[in-house]
Amino acid sequence: MKIGKVPTDFLRDKIIANVKSTRKEVLVGAGIGEDCAVLDLDNQLCVVSTDPITGAVADIGNLAVHIACNDVASDGAEPVGVMLTVLAPSSTTEEDLEQIMKDASKAAESISVQILGGHTEITDTVNQVVISTVAIGKQRRDRMIKSAGAKPGDIIVMTKHAGLEGAAILAHDKEGELSEVLGRELMKEAKEQKHHISVVPEGILAGTLGVTAMHDATEGGIMGALWELAEASQTGAEIHRDQIPLLPSTIAICRHFEIDPYRLISSGVMIMTIPPDKLDNLMAKLHENKIEASVIGKITSGERYILADGKKVPLEEPDVDELYQVL
Where would I find the beta strands (DSSP E) of the chain? Predict the structure, then answer.
């Protein structure tokens, strides 16, 4: 099988088909495009998500905390705690593990989340450090947001810049190769994007402002996240590619490696949909909180397509993330 997420048809027919609904407390369970499970525990919602970090080496502790908490925030929920499973090869040093936990602790503190525990193991079944994170959040029942909530006519908004996480990973892990190509200023810009991969602030804020659906952009990038949100909601989508912001450093990195920035892992970007009459208030509140946001399209009842260079291009199911072509 290909590296990355398994194909949607296989996931639906062979994986999710074998997951049975057995508990009445489960309001949202396994589903295509859904980031979190939601449990009703005496009218207080518990939001749970899990994610592995497999494509990065540098700063993996920081990424592990933020990526899982981003999923919880995509439901409009407040992350409370995380549990970390760290699998490391025998070449790992004590100093490496200590640094990973220092980075994870700093990330957790930055978004008021507690590390609850986990598991740390040296194993010869991996050739680089792999971290799997479980994030747990809380939410009021009347504010539950799903990836499957988008409606035809809704406006599509994204925060920050496409390819954010992928550019930061490549700037760190391929620094020697990229330094001469990008120069000091662009390298600095790319590496600093690691500080912007949390979508917790915009997720919690948008969850109170009438958004109908949210989905954070991870593997498959912006286009992959848009397809997944439309698939979860069973809608069409019209995407304006020229309205999707890119940083100069991301453009330069993707040009060097000949990869597509719109399909490059983009944690740090939240995709959200909202009725037109609530859009101005959402954009104003995001701006007040110093969160960059752009309108990039709309949800439709028809086909899914991208408007690019005056042409309509199908919005397709995400394939292997562009990051894996480089690493």
Answer: 26-28, 37-41, 44-53, 78-88, 114-122, 130-140, 155-159, 213-216, 236-240, 270-274, 293-300, 304-308, 311-314
Sign for the CA dihedral angle at 112, 46, 217, 302 comes to negative
Secondary structure (DSSP) of 161-219? -TTHHHHHHHHHHTHHHHHHHHHHHHHHHHHGGGGG---HHHHHHHTTTT-SEEEE--T
Q: In which band, very low, low, confident or very high, does the pLDDT at 139 lie, cut at 50, 70 and 90?
A: confident
41 and 54 Cβ atoms separated by less than 8 Å: no
Lowest-pLDDT range of 27-36, 109-118, 296-305: 27-36
- Measured CA to CA, the distance from residue 59 to residue 128 in angstroms comes to 13
Residue whose token pair is 């398994």: 6
Rounded Cα distance, 301 and 310, in Å: 21
Tens of pLDDT, residues 217-255: 988 999 999 999 999 999 999 999 999 999 999 999 999
Sequence-separated (6 or more) residues with CB below 8 Å from residue 98: none
How confident is the model at residue 40, as a pLDDT?
84
Please tell me the predicted confidence (pLDDT) of residue 6: 75
- Phi then psi dihedrals of residue 43, to 5 deg: 75, -5
Q: Which amino acid is at 115?
A: I
Walk me through the domains of the chain, giving residue ranges and CATH numbers: 8-143 (3.30.1330.10), 147-326 (3.90.650.10)
Q: How far is CA 320 from the centre of its chain?
A: 15
Return the DSSP state at 303: -
Q: Are the C-beta atoms of 64 and 131 separated by less than 8 Å? A: yes
Q: Round to whole Å and give the CA distance between 47 and 44.
A: 10
Residues 281-294 pLDDT 10s: 999 999 999 999 99
Q: What value does the mean pLDDT of the chain take?
A: 90
